[in-house]
Amino acid sequence: MTKDIEEQCAVIHALSILGRKWIPWILCELIAHEELYFSNLLNNVIGSSGGNISARVLSEALSRLEEEEMVERIVDSKSMPIRISDLITKKGIDIGVVLSTIKGWTIKWSDITHKKCKSFTCVHNAVPMIDIDKAKKLQEK
Questions:
Q1: pLDDT in tens, 66-119
Q2: Distance between CA atoms of 27 and 14, rounded to whole angstroms?
Q3: What is the domain range of residue 8?
């Protein structure tokens, strides 16, 4: 797929961001907590995903989200050592609606029948479910 298509199509552009492996976990952690220190975010993503993300991969994903203005990096140079935190922006918070709608669509059309994951720390619990049929009615108006 060419860069032109991604730049011209809003859906493809959004999916190119959300489709990266760790992005949903990072966004949901920041939506749930609003601001996290890098080390806390790293531990939370590892805990919620059950996977193992490296600090380098997290840093690259955060840089991408910062480029997209979904995350703002805050540097506290007054503390020693210097502390870096990541803050979800309004644009990043808005993606929660998209994730909630995707959740509703998945519950309607897949074998997944629960609206809340069994694990309390699961990434999916950070966003509520939006009923896809109600969302379709809003779209029709």
A1: 999 999 999 988 888 888 899 999 999 999 888 888 888 887 888 876 656 654
A2: 13
A3: 3-140
CB contact at 8 A, 21 and 14: no
How confident is the model over 44-64, as pLDDT tens digits?
888 877 788 999 999 999 999
- What's the CATH code of the domain at 105? 1.10.10.10
Number of domains in the chain: 1
**How is 86-109 classified by DSSP, letter by letter?**
EEE-HHHHHHHHHHHHHHHHHHHH
Question: How many C-beta neighbours within 10 Å does residue 73 have?
Answer: 14
- Can you tell me the distance from the alpha carbon of 46 to that of 23, in angstroms, rounded to the nearest whole number? 12
